[in-house]
Amino acid sequence: MKEIVTRALSGTVYVLFLVSAIFYDPLVFTALIGLFSFLALWEFLRLLRLPFLPFFLLHLTIFIVPVYFSLPSRWVGLFLGAVILTNLWVSIRCFQKTQVSLNTAEKSLLAFFYLTGSSVFIALIHSITWEGLPLYIFWLYLAIWTNNTFAYLVGSRFGKTKIFPAISPKKSYEGYWGGAVFTFGLVFAIEYFYGAFGSIWWGIGLGIPFFATLGDFIQSYFKRRANVKDSGHWLPGHGGFYDRMDSIIFTAPFFYLLLKLL
Fold first, then answer.
1. Residue 192 burial (CB count, 10 A)
2. What are the helix (H) ranges across 102-240?
């Protein structure tokens, strides 16, 4: 019972900080995401046993330049393409039956594009407003929280058929579809009342549960490789920031791409 209360309190504080920053000021939100993703990167580097300083400098540079300076859309598009290709590559590696060792170059690629690069697009989504309000990033977080919450509730109650127990033994198809149905319903409601996504709303409604779950699997994969339960201990009851941000990190680039298709 104490653990549940601790988890609820720390989760509530985390959500309040994020939602307040989303609607308070773009620079505050960017700084907060920069800090959270920096802590997630630090945890990720520990899992991969990579040096900290060079990636910290790269994270700082890559996070600041696209967000605070008006870069040509072609450059942002090329960077987005590299991030998405890296995320697809790590997904394939994650689900291989035989675990393959990653060399230093591959680990560096992941730290740079998968974690830092994906995190940049969380901030860039915030810059795409709906009628002057940063609702797209709020809706994305809301959809991911809805998916993860109902996937847990349905999975813990009805989950029997495991998706990939070698990586995440608790995740079931029943839980996945429970989260997906509620998330799809949420996106449908947003489209119905706001008309925010146009003709691609159904792709967003189906895509968010898929990519959020995949991001969670990838994080579990790296923790299992490192033989640890949590990536860190910053958030009582939740583990580290990489534990907390795995879904949004992986989903943000794909969501940003879909928004650009509107």
1. 10
2. 104-109, 118-126, 135-158, 173-194, 201-226
236, two tokens: 């009582």
pLDDT at 36 over 80: yes
C-beta of residue 241 within 8 angstroms of C-beta of residue 40? yes
Listed residue (180, 107, 141) closest to 21, CA to CA:
141
CB distance 236 to 10 below 8 Å: yes
The pLDDT score that the predictor gives to residue 257 is 95
Q: Determine contact, residues 209/184, Cβ cutoff 8 Å.
A: yes
- Nearest Cα residue to 237 out of 18, 15, 4, 43: 4
pLDDT of 233 > 90? The answer is no
Contact 187, 208 (CB under 8 A): yes
- Global confidence as pTM: 0.92
State the pLDDT confidence band at 197, using cuts at 50, 70 and 90. Answer: very high
Tell me what pLDDT residue 66 has.
64
Q: What are phi and psi of 179, to 5 degrees?
A: -65, -40
pLDDT at 9: 76
How far is it, in rounded angstroms, from Cα 174 to Cα 179? 9
User: 115, 102, 130, 134: which is closest to 39 by C-alpha?
Assistant: 115
DSSP state of 95: T
Q: How would DSSP label each residue in 147-178? A: HHHHHHHHHHHH--SBS-TTT-TT-BHHHHHH
Q: Decide if pLDDT at 6 tops 70.
A: no
